[in-house]
Each structure stands twice: as structure tokens, then as C-alpha cells.
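We treat protein structure as text, and this decision shapes the records that our systems exchange. Below, we set out a record of this kind in full and without editing:

***
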Amino acid sequence: MSDTINVEYEKKVAEFYQSLGINQGPGDIQYRLILLVLKKNEGKITEFAEIREYTDQFADRGSIGSKMKTVFQLEGLAKKIQRGGYIITERGLIAANFLNYTSAFYKKTKSMQAMLDRLP
């Protein structure tokens, strides 16, 4: 994974999964961005402010903190180790790898759709 997260691409992938009726996990742009930021900082502490850099354009101020508590910490995807500091867990890495697979599937599907659209 590169050091930059393409927010617009992640938004398109999330919208694709929402169109299939998957609104959680791969279809949740906040979930995708939080997990990708945590993965990007694997082995380091991820500051809450760094997560918010990516999520603020899609979320209300309190919703990301709530999601960190109710989804990421409760499900064991991230561990809070200081005030405003998180690290990704092994379980979180598995979830991040799953997101990579969902992105690859999206890319393959869109590529196939583009080829079919070009057929006479």
C-alpha cells in the first residue's frame, strides 16, 4: 500500500458496495478510511487527528470517535494506547487486507464493465 490514501477512489469503492446493499465494512467510507490510516501507520501510533484528516469530509465531528470506540476498539481492530493514539491490531490488519481484496474486486468489476460497454 502506498503512503497516500486516495480518498476519492475509496469513496467510489464504498459507493459500489453500497449499491450492492453492503453498507457496513467495505461499503462504509469512514470504516475504510480509518482502517487504511491505521494500516498505513502499522508499527507506529496513529494520532486521532491524522484519522480525522481523511474522515472529516465524510463525517460529523463526534461520529469518528464513536466509531473508534464502538467498532474498532470493541471488535479488536485497534487498540487505544494513549489519549488520542491508536495502534492497529492483528485483527485490524486482517480487516485491512480484506479491504484490499474488496478494492481489487471493484477494480476488476469496473474493468470488465468497461470492456463490455465497448462491445458492439
The chain has a mean pLDDT of 92.
